[in-house]
């Protein structure tokens, strides 16, 4: 998930995530976590809307937007044609005027079609306007490799976007994981830029994201 000037400026700062402990853990998939987060933000703020390919009646290619169209309707859950540059640009323009768009790419490989809007229009405008024009927009979608998909769907773009000033990058891995009870509270937000410590030790530090987290945990167990 890639963020340009995160939408939560008015969200309470009291909520937080422990980076070192898991208490009363429950299994939660990233799919369900994203669906719940979108629902909470849509319910909390009328300015938030979701736009992308198959996000409405079809519930999203990976069912991230499951049941949201039924609840919020056509004006806030918006299906688009296959034109990433077009709907990314519409989202950026909406953010310029104070709305809070969430733009979904079916895969971040396809975000290459919209890279000018993401980088030059969304990420740089705050600086080019001397801080007078904020761009509160979220670009989200799956990134990296998965089993049985083509080369055009498998590249990881984390390094590309991580080196673009103005974008705040949050990357999640697509398997079930344990979470604290506090995460399931409606008054909760994940702090940007804070790593999760999976296992503590004394000899070596392994840093990873996405599916690499799984491999690092397995490596630590082997060591």
From TrEMBL:
Its EC number is 1.2.4.1. This is Pyruvate dehydrogenase E1 component subunit beta. Residues 28-192 form the Transketolase-like pyrimidine-binding domain. GO terms for biological process: pyruvate decarboxylation to acetyl-CoA. One of its GO terms (molecular function) is pyruvate dehydrogenase (acetyl-transferring) activity. It catalyses: N(6)-[(R)-lipoyl]-L-lysyl-[protein] + pyruvate + H(+) = N(6)-[(R)-S(8)-acetyldihydrolipoyl]-L-lysyl-[protein] + CO2. It holds the Pfam family Transket_pyr. The keyword GTP-binding does not apply. Coiled coil: none annotated. The pyruvate dehydrogenase complex catalyzes the overall conversion of pyruvate to acetyl-CoA and CO2. CDD domains: TPP_PYR_E1-PDHc-beta_like (cd07036). SUPFAM superfamilies: Thiamin diphosphate-binding fold (THDP-binding) (SSF52518), TK C-terminal domain-like (SSF52922). PANTHER family: DEHYDROGENASE RELATED, PYRUVATE DEHYDROGENASE E1 COMPONENT SUBUNIT BETA, MITOCHONDRIAL. Keywords: Oxidoreductase, Pyruvate, Thiamine pyrophosphate.
